[in-house]
Write a structure and sequence with these properties.
It is a single chain. By secondary structure, this protein is an alpha+beta fold. It has eight helices and nine strands. The strands form three sheets. Strands 6, 7, 8 and 9 form a four-stranded antiparallel beta sheet that branches. A hairpin with a 7-residue loop joins strand 7 and strand 8. 11% of the residues are buried.
Length: 300
């Protein structure tokens, strides 16, 4: 009978002792609540105690947490819309304030509130600068300004914003298409200008080459005419000198050349007087010798 009473008491006492002991990991912070009110904030890791069945233990991550923000459109000073999203790093610094700010929502509620704060600061900061500065590679000053402004407002949540980085700054899809079309038109205009300048240069080179060809051809023809005229003059001189040395032999060779030219082929027909001077060397040799035909200078 005594054992039946003692054993349940021992079990109840053991369960009560176990429920009053809890451990805190080095990666977390702990709040001890009693009837919904914060009674203890524990930031040191180790073994700790609480009132069993009365106090409640809430655990929160003490590490640096990440927060990717939702993409949003901002309008810089030059009215060019941009799609921007960012990534923030934050951690809980004041656990009691954090509990009062987010209530039972915990980390998820804090993320929602931080997302709103950071997006608002992104709009505020980027709306005061031109888009060229936002799209440039050197955006450290803008990101630091967003971080500092968000850190001030996030302090009321009991958290610290450690860093904010802009992960994307792009034009909206319709703006991208318009920008690409404008860039394509600009490049096509430049290509057309280059082609026109190339054609103009080619025309100049071609005209210069044609002019040079005409000049060279004209000069060559002039020199050829001079050489031809000189040769004809020399030929006439040689004919005259040959005729002066032996008129009879000159007349004979000229007649033989005329026979060779005229009497060719198998169907040659010539109608001439029998006493024609053309055949004087084919008839009586004495008559031909008595009346030679005087040669005529060859023409061009």
């Amino acid at each position: 009978m005594r054992a039946a009473i003692v054993i349940p008491i021992v079990l109840i006492a053991g369960a009560t002792a176990l429920s009053s002991v809890f451990t805190v990991d080095e990666r977390e912070k702990v709040l001890v609540l009693q009837f919904g009110q914060v009674t203890q904030v524990i930031t040191e890791p180790g073994l700790h105690f609480k009132l069993p069945f009365v106090q409640e233990v809430l655990r929160y991550d003490d590490r640096i947490l990440g927060l990717p923000t939702r993409p949003l459109e901002v309008t810089p000073l030059d009215d060019r819309r941009l799609v921007v999203d960012a990534f923030a790093r934050w951690r809980i610094t004041d656990l009691s304030m954090f509990r009062r700010a987010v209530g039972a929502g915990g980390i998820d509620a804090a993320r929602d509130n931080l997302d709103k704060i950071i997006n608002a600061e992104i709009r505020e900061v980027l709306g005061g600068v031109p888009s060229q500065k936002v799209l440039s590679e050197d955006r450290t000053a803008l990101m630091n300004q967003i971080r500092d402004r968000a850190r001030t407002k996030a302090a009321s949540l009991g958290v610290e914003v450690i860093d904010v980085r802009l992960t994307r700054t792009d034009l909206p899809q319709q703006n991208l298409e318009a920008t690409f079309a404008r860039m394509r038109a600009e490049r096509e205009r430049e290509a057309t200008d280059e082609i026109a300048r190339g054609n103009e240069a080619a025309q100049k080179v071609r005209a210069a080459a044609d002019r040079t060809a005409v000049e060279i051809t004209s000069e060559a023809r002039k020199n050829a005419e001079i050489v031809r005229g000189t040769a004809d003059a020399q030929r006439v001189t040689i004919y005259a000198q040959a005729y002066g040395k032996d008129p009879e032999f000159f007349a004979f060779t000229r007649s033989m050349r005329a026979y060779e030219t005229a009497l060719t082929g198998q169907t040659t027909t010539m109608v001439l007087s029998p006493d024609s001077a053309f055949f004087r060397y084919l008839g009586d040799s004495t008559a031909a010798a008595a009346d030679p035909v005087a040669p005529e200078p060859a023409s061009n």
